Amino acid sequence: MDQATAKKLLIEGGTFVFLGVPEETQFGIDMQCWNTEEDFRGIKMIPPGLHYIHYAAVSKSTADISPRSGFMHFFEQKEFLVKIWNKDKEDISKDEVSDESIQTLKDNLLNLDRHLAPYPYEIWQKWRLLSSQITIGLAKKLSPESGIIRANMELLPTSDGDRPRGVKTLDETGEEGTTSNAGQSVSKRAKRLSAQEREDAMLPDLKCVPGTAMRFTKFPKEKYPPGSSPEEITKHYLDQSYTLELMISQHDEPLHIVGELQFAYLCFLIGHSLEAFEHWKDLVILMCSCDSAIHKYRSVYVQFIHTIETQIEEMPEEFLADIVMNKNVVYKKLRELFRIAHASKVDGRLLALIDRFKTNLTEKLQWDFTGLDKDEDDERPVIVNIDEAELE
C-alpha cells in the first residue's frame, strides 16, 4: 500500500492479538488466509469496520485440517483486541483476557509489533462491497449466541431412548402397526410410506448444541395471508412479495435483508458453512420471485443487484460450473428476475443496473439470457389428458 494509507492505518487501524497459536495453524481475516509461523502474534493496521476472523487447527502428524471456525467483529479506531488459543480444545479460548494483561501487551507494543502481520489492504475494497449492508447489530443478531461461526453444526449425541426403533404406521382400522428396520411390516395392511419418509424416520432426531446454531431469519411456513382464496394463493406463489414483506418485517430496516444475504454468503465463502449457502440460495430465490416488491423496495433491489453481482464474481469455480452446466435454480431465478424487471417496467436507473448485470454475466460467464419472454422447457404448463372413463 502507499505510504499515506499505511501511515493512516498505523494510527487509526485496529490490532488483533492472538496469543499461543501453534505454528502452521490456518489463520485469516476477511478473504485472506495464511499458515502461521512460530513468531505469529496477530494482525495490525486493521481498517475500522466489520471484519471476519477465522482459523482452523492443523494436525502436525497427519497435516489434516479441522473444520473452519471464526467470528465477526466490528473494529473501532485504534481498538486493541486480545484472544488466546486453547491448546487442549485446539480452538479459541472462551476466557476473557484481563485488563492488566491487555495493558501489559500495549506497554510492550514496540516488541510485539514485529510479530504482527499487516492487514492485507489489497482485499479491502472487495471486502467492503461484500459486507456493505452488515451492521454490527445485524452481525450479532444472525451469529450464534456463542459468537463463534463454525463450518459444521455442533450436534448433541443421541441417547438410546432417542434412537429410531422402526417406523410406526397405521393400518386400515386405525390401529398402530410397526415397520421393522428390515422393512418388514407387522401389520399386513400397514399404510404405505415413501422411501424418503422411511429414511427420515430411521434417522435420529439430532439437535444443535445450545448457543451454536446460526440465527437466520425464518421463512414463513405459508406464502399467502390467512383466509386466502385459491386464486389468491396462486397469485402469492407466482409473486412472492408477501413472503418478502414478512421477512423484511423481522428486521429493523428493509436493507437488512440484503445485509442478511451478505452475511450468509460470507459464512459460506469464508466460513465454509453449507447451512449458510442454503440460506443464501433461498434468499436469492425469494428476491428474484417478487413482482410488486421490486417497485416498493427499489433501494433494496439496487443494493441486491450490486451485492449479488459482486458475490457471483467471488463464487468458487465449482459452484459457478454447476450453475452454468446444470442451469440450476440460481440461473433460472436470475432469468425470472430479468423477465420481471422488463415486464413490470421498473424505473430507468434500476432497469439499467439490471441490464448491465445481465450483460456482465453473459460476457464473463457466457450465461445465456436470450428468450426471456419464453418459458424454459421445464417451466411450461403440462397438459394432462384425462380419460372420460376415469371421471365416472
UniProtKB/TrEMBL annotation:
The source's superkingdom equals: Eukaryota
Q: Where is the AAR2 C-terminal domain?
A: 216-369
Q: Keyword Kinase, does the record have it?
A: no
- A single Gene Ontology CC term: spliceosomal complex
Residue ranges with Basic and acidic residues bias: 160-171
Pfam families per UniProt: AAR2 (PF05282), AAR2_1st (PF20981)
AAR2 N-terminal domain: residues covered: 13-144
Q: Where is this region: Disordered?
A: 156-191
Q: Where is the composition biased (Polar residues)?
A: 176-187
| Transmembrane feature ranges | none
Q: Does the keyword Lipoprotein apply?
A: no
* Subunit structure comment from the entry: Interacts with PRPF8 (via RNase H homology domain). Component of a U5 snRNP complex that contains PRPF8.
The UniProt family comment states: Belongs to the AAR2 family.
Q: What does this protein do?
A: Component of the U5 snRNP complex that is required for spliceosome assembly and for pre-mRNA splicing.
Q: What is this protein called?
A: Protein AAR2 homolog
What's the source species for this entry?
Leptidea sinapis
